[in-house]
Amino acid sequence: MSNVETRPLEQTVCDGPPASTGTDTDAPDTELLEPREVPLGGPRAMLVRRSLPNRHRRMVGAWCFADSFGPTDIAGADGMQVPPHPHIGLQTVSWLLEGEVWHQDSLGSRRMVRPGQLNLMTAGAGIAHSEQSPPGHSDTLYGVQLWIAQPEQDRNGPAHFDHHTDLPTLVEEAGHVTVLMGELAGAASPARAYTPLVGADVELRPGGRLRLPLEADFEHAVLALGDPLTADGRAVTAGAMRYLGRGRREVLLESPTATRALLVGGLPFEEHLVMWWNFVGRTHEDIERAREDWMAGRRFGKVTGYDGDSLPAPALPNVPLKPRGRTR
Q1: Residue 203 lies inside a defined structural domain of this protein
Q2: Residue 288: enclosing H or E segment and its boundaries?
Q3: What is the pLDDT of residues 38-84, one digit of tens each?
Q4: What are the beta bridge partners of residue 164?
Q5: Tally of structural domains, the chain
Q6: pLDDT (tens digit, 9 = 90+) per residue, 14-34?
Q7: What residue numbers bound the domain in which 126 lies?
Q8: Model confidence over 249-266: pLDDT tens digits?
Q9: pTM score above 0.85
Q10: Which of 90, 96, 114, 227 is the most interior residue, by most CB within 10 Å?
Q11: Quick one: average pLDDT of 271-289?
């Protein structure tokens, strides 16, 4: 996924000492992370709901960015049109519920992602890519795209791209689960991860009560992609993310209607990050060098096959970007 904002907010820097939000005074290990709407590709573009980074909590495990979108009617419209842009120090996870997106990158990868398929792009020291709804696209676009921060020992490694069409599934009376990343209930995804984590798409049937096992050492969150649901009895409103804290061995997901949700989790990511625009680094200088290299045509390569200009990097703020932790 991409951050195409021309003036990225300071809050997209991951940081701060832990603090209670007061959202759940009787259960301090949970928080409801309300999303903000962001235009993807300009003021006339489709809107996405950004739940990470959030005002009080910037990460869940190594997951540091989460956009959900749709179901959006794009009949007769351009849909998703994101020009070539750079990334460093992260993995992008693209997962669709409806529609299709055409991916092209500077490694020469060309791949259409469709529902039930996982696009996983690893930036390492640098990569560039574009994302487009193709000509003759479906009338509806519906999905989620996320970033995973790479740890220090891997963040300057080689870039690569993987497309997975055969992911493990769990079928229960209450619903259906697809494991995108990591392992859940003994089902392990083939996707490459650099830190212990999990990501799973959950499809609940009407009236479904689905109990999922969790790693107690992980922190977890549930992102509502469709109708509202509850996680251990606590509301997860449409488009919002419910942070569940650490130490749980299971979670009960319930909904009176058919709905979709994303479970994410992982070991708390203790490295301090600077996350600005489409870059995840450790220092202001990391970000400054990446921006300069992108604007000078260095490091990131070229996305061939895209008809149009690349996305220019925004101006850096007037104050140095500070490395910060996973909560505010």
Answers
A1: yes
A2: helix 284-296
A3: 887 654 577 899 999 998 899 999 999 999 999 999 999 999 999 99
A4: 118
A5: 1
A6: 333 333 333 333 344 799 999
A7: 10-266
A8: 999 999 999 999 999 999
A9: yes
A10: 90
A11: 97
Report helix, strand or coil for 92: strand
Is pLDDT above 50 for 13?
A: no
Q: Does the residue 47 lie in any domain? A: yes
Say which CATH number the domain at 228 has: 2.60.120.10
Q: What is the mean pLDDT of the chain?
A: 91
For residues 303 and 31, give the distance between their C-alpha atoms in angstroms, rounded to a whole number: 40
Is the separation of the CB atoms in 94 and 143 below 8 Å? yes
DSSP string over 149-210 = EPPTTTTTS--EEEEE----EEEETTEEEEEEEEEETTEE--S--SSSEEEEEEEEPTTEEE
Q: Which residues are annotated as a binding site for Fe cation?
A: 85, 87, 129, 131
- Which amino acid does the sequence have at 208? G
d(CA 151, CA 84): 25
- Residues 292-309, buried b or exposed e (16+ Cβ, 10 A)? ebbeeeebbbebeebeee
- Within-domain flag for 211: yes
Buried b (16+ CB within 10 A) or exposed e, 111-144: bebeeebbbbbbbbebbbbbbbbeeebbeebbbb
